[in-house]
Amino acid sequence: MKECKNIMLYLAGELNPQERAAFKRHLAECRACRAELTLWQAAQEPGQAPAAPAPVVEALFAKTTRKPKFWQAFFRPAWVACALAAVLVAGGLMWQERPGYDSREVMAYMNTHLEEDYQTFALDLAQLEAEF
To answer: Are residues 12 and 30 in the same domain?
Structure first.
């Protein structure tokens, strides 16, 4: 039946006055719709949570509102700050930029000292051959 599908619209108040009157007449005749409507109305009523026993509430309140001890309040932030500083210093040392070498400077040095290096190598080689 068409009226059986209107239960949710009736509960939400979205039926116009004629449809609302027709649905109320249908409810008088249809036991299944009355039972379903009662079920939905009960489901929409706000429930009330059971009250906790007073000793439990007091114990919970005492645990959540206690003040931290002096050493906890002072040293915990200090340790965090020290650890953060140590990490930053270590990271700075690890990622410190090392001086790079300019390839033009290396090539210029090699060109100016190449002849000396060859002569030194030749002398060292001659001395090595003479010993063996």
So the answer is: yes
pLDDT at position 70, please? Answer: 64
Q: Which two tokens stand for residue 93?
A: 């040392």
Domain residue limits at 33: 3-44
Is residue 54 assigned to a domain? no
- Average model confidence (pLDDT) across the chain: 78
Domain count, the chain: 3
Mean pLDDT by 10 residues, the chain (132 residues): 76 88 89 87 72 78 70 67 82 66 74 77 82 76
pTM: 0.35
